[in-house]
């Protein structure tokens, strides 16, 4: 019984589909050649890569020294380069500018990272830079 | 009037005195026709480095940020006034950042060098320069002998 009902459902669905297709063809009766390739965007196109600050729409600010200290080496207090942080050019420049400001205002130390922030989550891995370096 | 941010470190003092100091600091701005939009208190905390000001070494400070609209010629005047203030340890004045609307350029930066715009520009510039390795001097003197010592 269930089988029959299933079959009948399928036949109804097929009929509906046929009606639908004929309707669509009726609308644009000129383009009916099914063999032509379909114009569409590349479905395999990769998503545009963005740096972490652009993705989250963050503008670095010198008062937010906790964020800025994540771009600072815990050993020397120096700012990590673009090949380590993985930021785009504009954001890296902004980060460097704001870190210098924050250090000037005595929000952030020059030669070490504030020990309160040492266990903050890491945004990048300094051991695996995009481009190798000699350090 | 452009907007500025004055980052100010004030020495350790009781709350009532701190209020007086802030009044004095803000009156300096009002006297010169400026407006204070906001005073942010970033709290009392140890400084990352010791600072000596007016003959005393400070290791802790009250952090304040004043968001101010003043004329450009007033800024140096304010700085001079605050540098003479005994309660102010350190002060910096910055212009307020413009919101940048640039798109992320990481995708273009990760392309191989030959596809990068700046590298292509460098190659174009290089083509207009003399190639040191293949350059040969031409003796266009019109003489059938070489006039200089060889
Ligand atoms: Zn970016």
From TrEMBL, chain A:
GO MF term list: small ribosomal subunit rRNA binding; structural constituent of ribosome
Gene3D superfamilies: Ribosomal protein S18 (4.10.640.10)
Keywords: Ribonucleoprotein, Ribosomal protein
Record's GO cellular component terms: mitochondrial small ribosomal subunit
Gene Ontology biological process terms, A to Z: mitochondrial translation
Top-rank lineage group of the source organism: Eukaryota
Any matching Pfam family: Ribosomal_S18
Family of this protein: Belongs to the bacterial ribosomal protein bS18 family.
Protein name in UniProt: 28S ribosomal protein S18c, mitochondrial
Natural source organism: Leptidea sinapis
Automatic annotation (TrEMBL), chain B:
GO molecular function, one term: small ribosomal subunit rRNA binding
SUPFAM superfamilies, A to Z: Ribosomal protein S6 (SSF54995)
InterPro entries: Ribosomal_bS6, Ribosomal_bS6_sf, Transl_elong_EF1B/ribsomal_bS6
Gene Ontology cellular-component terms listed: mitochondrial small ribosomal subunit
Listed GO biological process terms: translation
Family: Belongs to the bacterial ribosomal protein bS6 family.
Name of this chain's protein: Small ribosomal subunit protein bS6m
Source organism (scientific name): Leptidea sinapis
